[in-house]
Amino acid sequence: MPRFADGFVNELKDRIDLFDLTNRYVQLKKSGSSWVGLSPFNQEKTPSFYIHPEKGFFNCFSSGEKGDVITFIQKMENLSFQEAIEFLAQEFSIPLRYQKGGTTQPFSNSIKSELYSLHELVTSWFCEQFSTQKKESSIARNYWLEERKFSLLTAQRFQIGFAPTNPKALIEFLMVKKISRLVIEKSGLFRSNEKTGEFFPIFSGRLMIPIREKLGRICGFTGRKLSLTPEWGDKKSPKYINSPETPIFKKGQLLFNLDLANKEISSESDFLLVEGQLDAIRCWEEGFRTVVAPQGTAFKELQADLLRKSNPRRVVCLLDGDDAGKKAALSYIPIFLQAGLDARFATLPTGVDPDQILINKGADALKEIIESGKNMIDYAVGQKLNKENRISPNERKQLSEFIFEPLSKLESFVVKDSYLEEMAKSLSMSYDSIKKDYLRFANESKNRRKYKIISEKKEVSTKPQRLTIVEDDLLYAVLHDDRLASPLAQILDLALLDLESTSGRILAKILSEVRAEGFSSINQLEELLENDRERSTFQRFLFLDASSHEDIFLPQLVNQCLSVLHFRQTKRFEQSILEQIKDCVDDADKIKALRSQLKKIRSNRNSPPVLILSE
């Protein structure tokens, strides 16, 4: 796997303006030498997200998140470190450079990157099959053009393809392209025979719809059944099949068309959530450009989080009017409330989907349905208490708890109050009564959670937990005073560090590098880190507010840490010798030698190594 050229990561960070990047996600206002905006990580009313372009880092006080341009894009787009580098290099037209020869080459240092490349290749192949003059291909095109009444231009825009019925066609194509067996096995495109190792395609005789993640990379497919689709033995093959879960295809973390909808969304516009990909494509074709669809009717917390990060005004759910659609809508409500997303629910006529409405009645008819949607509270009341006769107290209580549970997890009191006011109005009750019931519920829930946490802590350990460890303080000192790394590397025995802790491992790497190459800069030291946990810890201490140690001189802090490490080591030695003495009661000479060692250790206990800075 190729590694980045020395200094490339720092070059990337130096060439990207943090303001230019964060301003795509957050509306920022000038505040002294910094910029401030609403947190992209939490729902809030008061701005607590600060960026410091000159220093190259951000700090979000409401969520505790902090870091540089790479950290920011990792968190916003849910990317690994390598994927974040690839994304930023592409967005800001910075050629990737690697150690071997320093030349630009395809970014392929992870199985994920290889799988994305494979899906692009396979998508192009499916598109070619869709366009050929073969009989099978004409059946797929006729379905698209005649039955579904889509255009070829839309097919090109969404890269609609066709998977032929020949079970060897795709695998032979990939073998010619010399795709590795490991990548093929992990792609989710094939089943394999355990005895012969032969590959068989998951998709056969189907219209192929590529699925893209938020950045627009193809990560999987949905295959729509056609008249020539082979049946599955005695069972009929399903109308739709999706790619199975793979390293890049996680059904509950994807929304179809989000890559295109994100380009159109703003804080003044709404996402339109529909149930199927073809419905989404039809809506997009007819001008509803912020449409998205889950993979199936299930909607998960991570999908709601994807929508929230785009900062829409609200989400309008366009769901079937049958019992399944109503049940799905009710399951969405707690998810939206907990994510801090406003939502409305528009119900389609039973047995009719958006595709049919748009074809038969046009865009205005769908707009009417969308505009008739109800807010979440009104919809929940209408579905849970769908009775003309008097609502019983118990029914009111059940409905209240259905809404109170996700509300209790929201941080914003303003948002909570607005939903409680809507509840009072929908239930024809006083706001004070609803508020009292909510506060009682929230207090009881808090006590239950607290009791559970206390019980779990008792089961795990009764020992008090330290907030920081000595390795944390040493790492902080080294990162905030350039004078300390070199002398500390010379006097500290790295065996004293706890390498089970992330900060201990980082510190050991830094001091080892300083011993070998000398101290250069903090930015270059960051390139020694090997994974996202180490990078996150490194940046947490690098961007930690200096006021947390303002009452102590950093060299003094280092010497206090050295004393702790030295004492910790002598206690280990003492314990070891005492155990040896206990085990050799009949060997007087050995006991004498061990006692001499013990005396020497104890006499050195108060003589830890001392860091002295040269003038």
What is shown here, in short?
This protein has 615 residues and is of the alpha+beta class. It has 5 domains: 8-91, Zinc finger, CHC2-typedomain (DNA Primase, Chain A, Alpha-Beta Complex), CATH 3.90.580; 111-249, DNA primase, catalytic core, N-terminal domain (DNA primase DNAg catalytic core, N-terminal domain); 258-384, Dna Topoisomerase Vi A Subunit, Chain: A, domain 2; 393-460; 470-603. It is globular, with a radius of gyration of 31 Å.
Characterise this structure:
The protein is of the alpha+beta class. The chain folds into five domains: 8-91, DNA Primase, Chain A (Alpha-Beta Complex); 111-249, Alpha-Beta Complex (DNA primase DNAg catalytic core, N-terminal domain), CATH 3.90.980; 258-384, Dna Topoisomerase Vi A Subunit, Chain: A, domain 2; 393-460; 470-603. It has 26 helices and 16 strands. The strands form four sheets. It has a five-stranded antiparallel β-sheet. The protein has a five-stranded mixed β-sheet with strand order 13-12-14-15-16, with helices on both faces. Strand 4 (57-60) and strand 5 (66-67) form a beta hairpin. The radius of gyration is 31 Å and the shape is globular.
